[in-house]
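Tubulin-specific chaperone D
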Amino acid sequence: SALVIAAVFDRDVNCRRAASAAFQENVGRQGTFPHGIDILTAADYFAVGNRVNCYLTISVYIAGFPEYTQPMIDHLVNMKINHWDSVIRELSTKALHNITPQAPEYMANVVLPRLLPLSVGSDLHTRHGAILACAEITHALCKLAQENNRSVTYYFPEKSLEGLKQIHQELYSRQLYRGLGGELMRPAVCTLIEKLSLSKMPFRGDPIIGGWQWLINDSLRHLTLVSSAARQHIKESAVSALAALCNEFYINERGEADPALQDELVTQYVSELQNSEEMIRCGFSRALGALPRFLLKGRLQQVLEGLKKVTIISPEDVSFAEARRDALIAIAKVCQTVGVKGDGSQQEYVCRDNVDQIYATLLTGVTDYTTDSRGDVGGWVREAAMTSLMELTLLLVQSEPELIHANICKQIMCWLAQQSAEKIDKFRAHAGSVFLTLLHFDHPPVPHIPHREELERIFPRWEKETLNWNAASEAFPRITQLLGLPAYQYHVLLGLSVSVGGLTETTLRYSAQSLFDYMKKIQGDPSALESFCETLLKVFEDNLRNDRVSVPLLTMLDQMLANGCFDMFTEQENHPFPVKLFTLCKEEIKRSKDIRKLRSSIGVFCGLIQFQGDMREKVFFQLFLLLCHPFPIIRKTTASQVYEMLLTYSDVVDPAIVEQAMAILSDTNWEAELPVVRERRNCLCDLMKVPRPQLVPK
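Structure:
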């Protein structure tokens, strides 16, 4: 059995494989190992390569042979639940849960009484492993008793029940929930609470329930004091424990909650949502999302209003992206818990009176582009909002689809299309996946999806699983086809602007190529091009001085002008598109000190020179203004790009003076002092008959 134990339970993969090979050798040569061939088949060299599989699957199969059951259990209890690696400790306790049905009496009469003193012992690792092992074994024994139509306490003498109850009291009285040890103890005891609740232990009305509730609440308030690595684990354990505790101990025979307890719990949790600590908001948001239906009944509006407040960005909590994310996740969970009833009360169901308000809150989350020192933290909020929108929509579709209004469905699909065209692979992939889930859902189909037939042609059903949204080379050629659908054009173009004008090489290459392919396709269709240009100007206008969009948008416009995307308009005198574009660019860079923005705008101004009419003098005047910009790098970039422009569009200047103008541009040191540069610039103005820009007195 020692070789079998090493093959299945050793932490190191090489040791597991060596033990498996040695066991195989012995079985082959001696043939005296019990059930050797059967065990070898399950635990061969390759099978033992996966540690989780070893602990949770192979071990259960081998423990089914009586010769190995007890040695394996003893090894886990003696050597593994006190292991220095927490992952091994947790896997061992789950393995004990899975093996319990093979030896329930041994577990109940020998193992559990041994574990109970260890769970309040002095060694931290042993204490942690023993608490989790008590939780898992108790749950397994109770499930077994219920399956055999026995009382849940069948395997538990009074002493064991008391021992399980005393774990929390002992740790609390010895202050073992504090400090670094508390980071291990809190999730372990929360797991114990969850398993004892799921086991339907006869503790209803016992004072220990109040102690457990205190620990759950305290753990959610304690999230700010622990390391970021432990935070998620504590939050998830506490929320799972809360759901199980409420479902088992807070419901009466009529399926209702005690009104006083419900009032206290819900009011306390909703008030914590406005805590000044972000992590406390996170914890209590998720806790509200985990409450069972009987505790939300009659309190739904209070809960939804509280969660909605967390999602609103205000100056003092602008960086609380994780709290906004958790509140959006909780809103969808609450909706799924209470269910839908069109003409029901808004205090009990998702119904006509509150559905639009819920959608409005979730749709606000899709517009969160907050950034801080961690990067695009708004991305977490957008991701949660997209998931919650999908969950709510599918919930409504399967019960009362008439509650989904056409304008809401259009907004959802348009926002998802925009996110599917953006630059961060992970969020683009998530948006694309949600978009296709809603498009192809068919029992029954989601109503009011704009351009459904065209979308199903662009994204065939059979490609739903195979299309890799993470790969820019696959995603952008598809998503740019939505530019031809009026309902989606604005949002897709907004998303594309950020990608085409971005800094990531692959995203930039494939998004730009897909956009230019679309532009080539509509060159022969004046109305399609006019509509596209109107949308493009609208995107620019709506995002004026919003640097997240306007800076990459200028870069994209520069590329589009250089690629001849608007050649159809260059022959027309004073076409409105370049005139409006020039005005917007001028407005965008007014008083700007952003070098990237200024440099992008130079390219756009140079590209606008190809249009006929009064535009040219205005464009030259603007470029000559930039030749005397306070920043030397901008003066130098302008001179270099104007030089290239005169080479490219040689017909925009009188051939007699073009060489002289190019000589001034190339021979002048544009990084010299401003008075010197201004003199050279004024020579250019006179030469090209453009009015000299005048210094405005301060």
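The chain has a mean pLDDT of 94.
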